[in-house]
Amino acid sequence: MSSNKPDGLLVADTLEAAVLTHRGLPGLRTAPTGSPSGRRGRRVLPGFNLTLGVTLFYLGLLVLLPLSALFIKSFALTWPQFVAAVSSPRVLAAYRVTFGSSLIAAVINLVFGLLVAWVLVRYRFPGKRILDALVDLPFALPTAVAGISLAALLGPNGWIGQHLTPLGIKLAYTPAGIVVALTFIGLPFVVRTVQPVLEDVEKELEEAASSLGATPFQIFRKVILPAITPALLTGFAMAFARAVGEYGSVVFIAGNMPMVSEITPLLILVKLEQFDYAGAAAVASVLLATSFVLLLAINGLQFWQRRLHGGRP
Amino acid sequence: MNTVIQAARRNDADAGARWVRVALIALAVIFLLTFLVLPLAVVFSEALRKGVDAYLKALADDDSWAAIRLTLLTAAIAVPLNVVFGVAAAWCIARFEFRGKSVLITLIDVPFSVSPVVAGLAYMLVLGAQGWIGPWLMEHDLKIIFAVPGIVLVTTFVTLPLVARELIPLMQAQGSEQEEAAVVLGASGWQTFWHVTLPNIRWGLIYGVILCNARAMGEFGAVSVVSGHIRGLTNTIPLQVEILYNEFQIQAGFAVASLLALLALLTLCVKSFLEWRHERHARRLALTAADARPAGTQAQASNVPLRAAA
């Protein structure tokens, strides 16, 4: 097989690409069309110092400076004070509410996100394009708007709430309402991470499995699921991370009872209103540390996916 | 005989598959209708519950109007800042190799994963009365926290990754050959950028700007920490929605909220249009490629990533 293909080809020798992909190497199709100029030993394009300088300056000023202020402020407390601030009963209850409902919402999104992605990729039905476009709504709709509309929807007089109240089900102003809001804001993540991977799953493998006598369920479990697992987990982690920090959509529907339905971001605001800056910073640094851990986990998952799919994004 | 049995089996399997397909589609559609369409419909239904006159009156209210103006001002500063940053970051990340690049990419993502409330608090701890440079600012009579500059700053933070995230994968996929050719032929850096890069990335840039704008106008958590909720002065549209809602002016609250919902719908429309354009383009590329090549080397251009990561 020749290795001297002209670069920039969208058309690759299918066999060669398949072999390369199978070995976990990037297929030709996915090679960047232009080589980064750095590889040629000398930079042809100008502007490296300027753009890198602007980028670092901007990130330093807007991201690193404020976030380090947060950690440093919480160091103003002595260690026992810090521990007391981040583990008082009310704070622990807030962690429980935040992480518990975020986890439930992320699991709901894992299941239904996979279902939606599957239906959008594999089937054709009227209105599909509109639904596909609407999946991004939670990214674009401001959280406060989502919050009041979900509260109105699930409240005792709402379109959904009025049918649930006679059944004795109460969603608005309870922890269950928090799960609903967090499910809404996390909805696009699993769909959008799984969708492109599902589009790329090779039909030939499924057909081969089918002709060897596998049932559709077996094909899903043994062929499709392994291919989409990293994407599923990435979407799950993203939805969870987003839910942990969410504030706007939750406060309108949660009822915000301390110890019962008070989320951690709200507790930070409560502490601020009591001028307990160090306490607020301490709880916030716990939340921030969680965000960083999740960000690293998501990066790791994406790395795994890139390896699994031979360099494809 | 054997083939007949196989065919019968296949028919059974097909019927089963059709049933499963219908059930899955129904389940997914019901889920999406409940979680996406209903909340959106409630916003407009509540906003118009008392008629168009009441709707317009709620929007014409002085405080609401002030909130609209402040939101427009905030977005008008935050979005251009993030465009300049996004273009610069995409240029250095997509066009050059350097150590620490992956750390830099992760750093750009940080504002996505930080809770907006935590972000607001962080800015307060730098610029507020209790913060690092707060006392100095007070001495010089500069008000940032509980004032408009603070709102602009946290909004910029929250929307920081949006343009960069749209441009980096796009420019990486396009490669730098055209730009290198321009430079080799004697174009200056700026000429190359204006005449080669910008036309290539303009659609991605437009989508980044629109998404960034929608998020900037809708930011709630971070802004509510640093705004101080001063009516007519430091209230943005989402904060005004909160105030109206908490005062049981439900209809007025939803009327103001409907502006943001319309903005969200517009954003989705633009995104769909750009995706449709991209698909058509990719299909056309695939067709020309298939025409130009001998049979056997099948075009795979339709597999080019169509969907920029959200």
Q: Key terms for this structure?
A:
heterodimer; A: 313 residues; mainly alpha; MetI-like fold; globular; disordered N terminus; B: 310 residues; 2 domains; 13 helices; disordered C terminus
Oligomer: heterodimer
Q: Look up the CATH topology of the largest domain in chain B.
A: MetI-like fold
- Main β sheet profile of chain A: none
Structural class of chain A: mainly alpha
Helix content of chain B: over 70%
> Architecture of the largest domain in chain B, according to CATH?
Orthogonal Bundle
What's the name of the CATH homologous superfamily of the largest domain in chain B? Answer: MetI-like
Order of helices and strands of chain A: HHHHHHHHHHHHHH
Question: Could you explain how this protein is built, in words?
Answer:
The complex is a heterodimer of chains A (313) and B (310). The model of chain A is unreliable at 1-41 (pLDDT under 50). Chain A folds into two domains: 41-75; 78-308, MetI-like fold, CATH 1.10.3720. The two termini of chain A are 26 Å apart. Chain A is globular. Chain A has helices spanning 14-22, 48-75, 79-86, 89-122, 128-134, 137-140, 143-154, 161-164, 175-200, 203-211, 216-245, 248-251, 264-273, 277-308. Chain A is mainly alpha-helical. Chain A is built from 14 helices and no strands. Chain B is an all-alpha fold. Chain B folds into two domains: 1-47; 51-276, Orthogonal Bundle (MetI-like fold), CATH 1.10.3720. Helix content of chain B is 79%, strand content 0%. In chain B, helix 2 packs across helix 13 (250-292), helix 3 runs antiparallel to helix 10 and helix 5 packs parallel to helix 11. The model of chain B is unreliable at 295-310 (pLDDT under 50). At the A-B interface, helix 2, helix 4, helix 5, helix 6 and helix 7 of A face helix 1, helix 3, helix 4, helix 5 and helix 7 of B.
